[in-house]
Amino acid sequence: MKIINTIKELKAMLDTCRAKGESIGLVPTMGALHAGHASLVERAVKENDIVVVSIFVNPTQFNDKNDLKNYPRTLEADCAMLEKIGATVAFAPAVEEMYPTEDTRQFSFEPLDTVMEGACRPGHFNGVAQIVSKLFYAVEPHKAYFGEKDFQQLAIIREMVRQLQFNIKIIGCPIVREQDGLAMSSRNTLLSPEERHRALTISRTLFASIEKAKGSSLNETKAFVENEINNTSGLELEYYQIVDGNTLQPVSEWEESDYIVGCIALFCGKIRLIDNIKYKGGE
Question: Is 0.90 topped by the overall pTM?
């Protein structure tokens, strides 16, 4: 596996691969890799001749400077994992490489970016679109792989691809969970042992809500999740929305859509975690 730090070197290598007719897959990450990331890379390795994994903590998608500062960075361990599972390239640029000048582009993904994460983290998805589009221009992959844990992000990236007319197939990959149910996240490493145990309430509640939904209205199901989280000491609910899986707009009746997903964001201590659960439809 090669470790590449510049767009120029990356493009030169990939141009050679393209000339041979080789297919290219991209897995964008912010590093601190775990088994969830590994599942994306493993799928990319199966489906492409060349797999590029980017490792870049993108400053423009953080609206909390402390969150950016504290985000875990484990480049050496990340590269060891990627080599083991068959990635071709780890692309690990410096901030100055990706942003030689300020990126002033402004994206609009309404109504996808006006709810949930978009409402709680102003500018976040604009930063995501800036960096992912830069990576798409640099790599020009045939396929790009994203985890469904970031459900709203996945929908917005698909919309960005449509708007910018990238000829890239976006592959959404299922949430990978710890054995005890907690959705894998690089932020989990920031939890204390007590917080880590408390965070299990999230997935337990979401799974229980699937059973609850079988005999309850949508609003009753939503209230069940909110009450369970609010009644757990040390957890602070930011939102729980039950939405149409395509438009991301809130629904109030199960009959409103054939594709319904519940999306949650909360603080466990000072660490912000997200998760989601599918109630109806989807792939």
Answer: yes
